[in-house]
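Q: What does the predicted 3D structure of cysteine desulfurase look like?
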Amino acid sequence: MSLNSMVIQGYHRQLFPKAMRSIAKVAFFSKISSIPKKRPVYFDYQATTPVDPRVLDKMMPFFTEKFGNSHSRTHGYGWEAEDAVEEARANIANLIKCQPKEVIFTSGATESNNTVIRGVCDIYGNIGNKKNHIITTQIEHKCVLSTMRELELKGFRVTYLKVNDKGLISLEELEKSIIPGETILVSIMHVNNEIGVIQPMNLIGDICKKYNVLFHSDVAQGLGKINIDVDKWNADFLSLSAHKVYGPKGIGAFYIRSKPRRRIKPLIFGGGQERGMRSGTMPVPLAVGFGEACKIASSEMNTDYIHVKTLYDKLYKGITSQLPDVELNGCGVNRMFGNLNLSFAGVEGESLMMKLYSMALSSGSACTSASLEPSYVLRAIGVGEDIAHTSIRFGLGRFTTHNDVDKAIQEIVESVKLLRKMSPLWDPEANMRVKGEESLKWT
């Protein structure tokens, strides 16, 4: 069997160790480098979204003639910039139904998550009095899980709630996990970035309010796509990001409730900007872009939803009607329909992505490090290691077209059929996975 054939079929990892796979990938991409260059069709909207042209138009003057520092209070350049920032803040607040003064700008959702979680623990935590318990889930974004691990090293106790096979938490387990007088914070993401599952935020907020526990959520994936209401959720803190809502990269924010007043210890110290909670010079063009993106999302959310849901149904049905043994990862109902995470039995996800080089995709079998471990989110919902390695995430958004989806269906079906014919994990005659495949181990 040739080296290229081994790559194309995603040869079983027991027979194809890491070093050989690395060499094979180089060989594969060297081969396709001779193909005429064409931008791949974008299907990775959970990773980032393109900046909406209207957002860019709004930002451009603040890179050129309106270049003032919004903290300069002695001349028109500063006043002009400050007015633009406050308009942006109001647009963001309107999208999540809070007051503008409750929106604090940061560099992105990772900084927001760190600032809120660590800042809450610094103000409300007391390790000596056992007021040091936090609750989160096993499927949070890496920046939340890493922050929790760091806090555990400092003496905080963290409960990582399990989820069911649909990716949803148990509200009963959440309530049982709260220790009155000791639990200070519940941090549960709104929409999961890998499988698109939406947690019941209003019910989670009700439980937190019942026990007087602070409630934080990372809403980066759902912002501008699903209605968010901080009062209906009883949310105390939210983390936001611009580049997931067709805004620029490098800007985010967090919401902090003012009534009753919530407090945090800042993560960054300096000039005391952003009500003393986030020091540093305001990147005015980015803030303006974030605000404009939220303004557009407020007015076009329903239109975007219908567009994306139509494409989701078309893509999902187009694939599953022609291919057997394709599994949807995550809940089919309580989900953000811009996210379609599928597992293709008998096909290794990374190899399928290499075959689909005309599309920009994310593999659920790839992770955030050099490790070849399968997705921790898929493992948390009970997906077996063999199937977890076969997953692909398709991200749909505002600028995805029906033509994009039609081409994707055709290429995916053809590629999966080809790879399955060559796979030792697939029986081409029976058109089904090899009996006993679940006992095989990926290495």
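A (community wiki): The structure tokens above were generated from the sequence. The CA atoms of residues 53 and 277 lie 31 Å apart. The chain has two domains: 13-46+300-439, 53-297.
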